[in-house]
Structures are given as C-alpha cells and as structure tokens.
Write a structure and sequence with these properties.
The complex is a heterodimer. Chain A contains 22 helices and twelve strands. By secondary structure, chain A is α/β, with parallel strands linked by helices. In chain A, strands 1-10-7-4-2-3 form a six-stranded parallel β-sheet, sandwiched between helices. Chain B is of the alpha/beta class. In chain B, a hairpin with a 7-residue loop joins β10 and β11. The longest helix of chain B is centred in the first third of the chain and has 13 residues. Chains A and B meet through α2, α3, α4, β1 and α8 of A and α1, α2, α5, β9 and β10 of B. Bound molecules: iron/sulfur cluster. Iron/sulfur cluster (SF4) binds next to α14 of chain A.
C-alpha cells in the first residue's frame, strides 16, 4: 500500500515527547471534555439509540455482503445523471486520476473540503508535485496546512493546537493579504480565515471533496459539514471531484437517514450537523450555478482485502471519531504519535492493514483493552477484538517485542501446569505482600520499572484468589 | 471499462467467495430494496410537527419568525435588516413562488444566483423536518445553491404545511413529486459554525452567520 510515508515505528519515543508537551496536553484536555460530554448527552436523549446502532450495522453489513452490485448500481446512477465514475485500486492510481482531471480542466487553484481518504492516498503531495495550488477550506485543515502538519484527529484535524498557536500561525501567514494585526480571540480568528478563504473559493478552478456516503438509489455523493466550506467547494468551481472509499456506498436515502442519526451525535454531540449535502451529477442545463463537470473516484486501496475476513467489521466505520475521543491512550499522546493518517483505536486497526504491521507494530499494543471504544462506536465495531487479532498475528510471525515473547512463553509454561501455577502465584503473592508490608503498596518491581515508574502497585494481601475460593470464602 | 474497475470488482467478489456477478434472483431482491426504500427504526417525534420544528431550529441558533400569511414577509425582513445592521440591497431567488411578495420600496432587489459580495439572500424551501429542525433546499433554475452559502444572512421562506416529521418523510415527498434528484439537495440545520479552535463553537465560519426562517401559516 502507499500514501504518505509512515512514521509509526517512532510511536514510543513520540508518545514520551507528547506526554511532556504542555501545549498538546492543554489542547487535548479541552478536547476530551468537550467531545465526551456532548456525545453522552446527545445519546442519552435518544431512547432508540441501541436500535439505531443495530440498524446502522445491518445496513452496512447488507451492503458489504453485496458490495459489487451496489457499486455498479451507484456507478450507473451517477452516469445517468451526467457524472463520471473512475476506479482506483491503489493510492497512486487514485492520485493520478485526480491530477489528470485537474490538468484536463486547466486548473491552477484547487479548493479542498476535508477528506480522510485524500489524506490516506497522499493527494496533497500529488497535487503539490503537479504544481497545483491547494487550498484547504475546513478551518481545522486550513490551520494544519499553514502549520505544514498532518491532521491529528479524523474530524477535528487541528485539535492539538491551542488558540495561541493558531493566532501565531494566522499572524505569520496572513500578512501577505494585508492583515497585519495579531488576532487573539476566537471570533476574530474565524472571521479572518473566512475573509482570506472567501477569495480562494471564488477563484478556484476545481473543488475536491470526500464523501460520507454514496447512495446507490440516486447516484448521490453526500458530505456532512458544519462550516459550509464543503458546499462552497462543490458548488462554485467549474469541476467537482469526489474521492471516496468503496465502502462508502449504501443502498438508499432512507439508509443515509439512519446513519446520519448516528454520525453527528457520535462525532460532535449534535443531532444533525449543520450542512448535509447530496450532490448528484453536474449542474442541470438550466441551473444558474453548480459545477459543469462532476467526477467520482472510487478507491479500493486495500479495502477489498479486508472484506473477506474478520477485518470486514472495520469497513462499517463512518469516521465519527468517537473511539479516539474516548481512548485513554489517544487522549494522552495525541494523534501525531500514531505516525500515520488514521489515529486512535480505529487507526490502530486500520494502519497495520494499510501500511503493514512491520511499520506499525506498536499501534495494536498501545491499548489498555478497557473496551470504551467498542462501547461508543456507533457502528458496533469490535475494535479491541480486532487489535487482538493484530497482536496474535504479530506474535505468530514473531514481530512482537522479544521480552514480551519471553514473558508470554513463561506464562504459557505455567498455565499448562495448574499445580505449579498455583504454587508460583502463591509464593509471588506472599513475597509481594512482605515487600509491601509497611506501606501497603510497592514503588518498584523487578521487570516492571516502566509500570511502577509512574504509579505504585497495591501490595497483595498475602493470599491468592484461588486459595480463598477453595477455603470457601466466596464473594456473594 | 478500465482495468482498475475490473480488478476491484474481481477482488470484491473473490472476498465474498464469488467469481461472477450476483445471480439475477438475488439482484432482483436488491433492486427492489433500492427501488422501494423502507424507513428503518426512527426516533419518536411526538406532538405538533410545526412547534417541534420551531423548537429544534431555535435550539441550534436558527432564527424563526412565524407569520400568519405572506403579507408580513417584507416587514419581517425590514426588521431583520434593522436589528442586524444589514443593508437593504438584497438578492431574492428567481423562484416564481416568491413573485407574490409585496416588497417595501426600501429594498433594492436582484433576482439571480449569489456573488461573493452579497450580504443577504431570500430563498424558498422545499420542506422542513420537525425531528431535527432541518430545512430541505433543492437546487434548480429557480433556486441556485450559491444563495444558501455565500451571503452573510440567509432568509428562508417556509410554508408550515411543508413541515414533515422525519427525514424519511422528506425523501418520500421528493420521490413522489420529482422524477429525479436535483443536482444538489441541502439539508440545513442552523447557521454555519465551527469548533475547530479549542472546541469552542463560533458561528459564521464560511456559510451564513445568520439563518432566519420565516414560517408562513
Ligand atoms: S471505529 Fe467506530 S467510533 Fe471509531 S471512527 Fe469508526 S465508526 Fe467512529
């Protein structure tokens, strides 16, 4: 697979740096509070939530089980409405198609709405290499474009930036437009970006957006935004290009309604995002605005390889971000630590599939198995189970850490010998109880310096669970 | 047909343990599912749909003014311009349904698509959805999409009889009244906003800073 160069091998070092980065910690603290609380109240307000989740899962499972048919149905409908459909097996193919379309349109300036699949295929670099001016129009994407950084969250790409950092960026980059005063308040910063980007919207030759859904019933591509940037991107330029993964297709408009109810609540705690837009082909003959050409690029890039096995669950993902907002690892280390496009629990499942486990071995292990991600995932994706599959494969192909292998081997040896296991555990519990007698906890343990480096281990009370159980002191 | 298309479809089929397209009997079932869509589970929306629409739209900071009939539109708009200090050169969608508005001569009116410098637009709406306080706007020669996004203020004239309960009801109406999807269908729920700076919500990101629904009847 391909796309942007991965830096996931660097996870451990990066995590250490970010945990000590005050800006990141401040920004992530704000984000965590906001996302988690808003989602919780939005979900609590819908008694039908669990039924909606089941229905959403059912829609996607049905579509995936007949994916070839639905893709062809969608394609036929787009064509019927005067649009074009292109197919790309790989990231390179997808980039080539988009760049060729831009060239054919004689484009110089390209506006872009937020699209994770565009990040995944490395479209930004491809457009730059082709000499095209790319303007990100989602405010968060625009901020990280100025900072020359990748997104750190799938729906809030600049979540790692503080307001102060945004002030600095705008101050530095907006001078060229005669905006020399350093703005420090949120509304003034938003107004400044609006002013700068307005000009770009009006003069772009091509607009590129992603798609939250592709509707087989009508041949529509659907985007969901709050800012309206996606709509200025798909309405004003002469050519509209949509990049979408093949798993985005669903049968009908009614099915979009179900998943929309899950999406906004899970992502931002809204009942509906501000703008949900269905684009079907190019402008009609008598329309006064809208693009004269519309192209949809359907991208596989490894998805068909996930379809036939346990990872097909991941193809239900609607990129809402709830799993990362609720992940203790993600909220501590931030998105950049993951070293590739997709972050948090969904990223730790997807990245090894897309760039290979050799380059991303830390990711499936950066998990406490607390299960929050699967509980909040609106599409009921069993994320911890999928991480475990990665770990098992890693172990089977001897790609996990040597020390972990050694410990696991020792544990397996004992676990197969129950009498010995009991004796060893018994001994261990007594020894630890003695060591921690004075304080009731331990500040240091052999072989676990990493663990006790930041917290104490409560000392065992001198008896194992099995022993207590046998003695009949069963909990009621 | 491109190589990539053939390859992707072959890969998808292989993953689904097939080599051929679906047999016609199965395909017919799918075609039926798509041709006669059924609503899935819907959240309960009790009570009066118009009141619910107003409450939901207001909750997302959309402005709503209820008018008994269309004769009050011009005055409501004058009040809007005064309150929000918006100039009275306005753009009105070239929609015949808006031809009957008796505009006060304070307004200077153009009927066209939007331009970058426009401050206020007036458009109709195809429907309202009570469930979430959402407007449904369709593109067409009489309702250019740019009017919904470029101006600072977007004023929407909505007939209260067009308010439906759920999103699916709007789709059902659309299917029965139109043969094909228009180029653009906008579901709009409040004014433009962003939370991209420290997760605080600011309005007027790229689209309208104010969304004002004039609800007639
Ligand atoms: S895995 Fe689930 S929670 Fe995470 S982004 Fe995808 S749909 Fe949302």
């Amino acid at each position: 697979m391909s796309g942007p160069a991965p830096r996931s091998r660097d996870f451990e070092r990066r995590a250490y740096v970010e945990i000590h980065n005050p800006n990141l910690q401040e920004a992530m603290g704000l984000a965590k509070q906001g996302f988690v609380g808003k989602r919780a109240s939005a979900v609590a307000a819908v008694p039908e939530w669990e039924q909606l989740r089941a229905a959403g899962r059912e829609i996607k499972e049905h579509t995936l089980a007949h994916l070839d048919w639905y893709l062809e149905r969608f394609e036929a409908k787009v064509r019927e409405n005067g649009g074009h459909v292109h197919w790309a097996s790989t990231a390179e193919e997808a980039c080539r198609i988009v760049v060729d379309l831009c060239r054919a349109a004689g484009a110089r300036r390209v506006t872009k709405g937020k699209s994770m699949v565009a990040e995944e295929i490395g479209l930004n670099e491809a457009l730059a290499d082709a000499g095209l001016e790319r303007v990100e129009t989602d405010l968060g994407e625009y901020i990280i474009q100025l900072a020359d950084e990748p997104p750190s969250h799938i729906i809030a790409p600049a979540v790692h930036k503080t307001k102060d950092q945004v002030s600095d960026l705008f101050h530095r980059h907006h001078r060229q437009y005669g905006l020399t005063e350093r703005q420090t308040e949120g509304p003034a910063l938003v107004a400044e970006a609006r002013e700068v980007l307005r000009e770009k919207f009006l003069t772009a030759d091509v607009g590129i957006t992603g798609a939250n859904f592709l509707v087989a019933e009508t041949g529509s591509t659907v985007i969901v935004t709050n800012e309206g940037n996606g709509d200025l991107t798909n309405t004003l330029p002469r050519v509209h290009i949509v990049t979408a993964g093949i798993e985005k297709v669903i049968p009908t408009l009614d099915d979009t309604a179900t998943i929309l109810r899950l999406l906004a609540r899970s992502a931002t705690g809204q009942e509906m995002s501000v703008y949900t837009t269905f684009s079907t082909g190019p402008r009609r003959a008598s329309d006064l605005d809208g693009p004269s050409e519309m192209h949809v690029v359907l991208i596989d890039n490894g998805r068909s390889q996930m379809l036939g096995n346990e990872f097909h669950h991941m193809l239900r993902c609607i990129r809402c971000g709830a799993c990362m907002n609720h992940c203790p690892v993600y909220t501590a280390v931030g998105g950049h630590t993951y070293g590739w496009v997709y972050v948090g629990p969904m990223g730790s499942v997807l990245t090894p599939l897309m760039i290979g486990i050799e380059d991303s071995g830390h990711l499936p292990n950066a998990c406490t198995m607390n299960g929050r991600c699967a509980e909040v995932c609106p599409m009921q994706i069993p994320l911890p189970d999928l991480l475990r599959v990665h770990r098992e494969r890693q172990h089977a192909s001897r790609l996990d850490a040597p020390r972990a292998r050694m410990m696991l081997r020792a544990w397996a040896f004992l676990a197969r010998r129950p009498a010995l296991y009991r004796r060893v555990v018994d001994l261990g519990a007594r020894a630890l109880a003695m060591l921690g007698r004075r304080r009731g906890r331990l500040r240091w343990l052999p072989l676990a310096g990493g663990w006790t480096g930041s917290r104490d281990l409560p000392a065992p009370q001198g008896e194992t669970f099995t022993r207590a159980w046998r003695a009949g002191r069963r909990p009621r | 047909m491109s190589d990539a298309r053939a390859r992707i479809l072959a890969d998808v089929r292989a993953a689904l343990r097939r080599t051929e397209p679906l047999p016609p009997s199965v395909a017919r079932g799918l075609e039926q599912r798509v041709a006669a869509p059924q609503a899935n589970v819907q959240p309960a929306v009790d009570g009066d749909v118009v009141e619910r629409f107003v409450a939901k739209m207001t909750a997302v900071n959309g402005l709503v003014t209820r008018l008994p009939d269309r004769s009050g539109i011009s005055a409501a708009l004058e009040a809007h311009c005064e309150r929000h200090h918006v100039p009275t050169d306005i753009v009105v969608a070239p929609d015949p349904a808006l031809d009957d508005i008796a505009w006060s001569n304070r307004f200077s009116i153009e009927r066209r698509a939007a331009r970058g410098e426009d401050r206020l637009s007036v458009t109709g709406a195809y429907a309202g959805i009570a469930e979430t306080g959402t407007l449904v706007l369709l593109s067409g020669p009489e309702s250019p999409t740019s009017l919904n996004f470029l101006p600072d203020d977007h004023v929407v004239v909505l007939d209260a009889r067009r308010v439906v309960r759920h999103i699916e009801d709007a789709w059902a109406t659309l299917r029965s009244e139109r043969r094909t999807m228009p180029r653009t269908v906008n579901l709009i729920t409040g004014p433009s906003k962003t939370g991209d700076i420290e997760q605080k919500i600011h309005e007027g990101a790229h689209g309208p800073r104010r969304l004002h629904v004039l609800l007639i009847g």
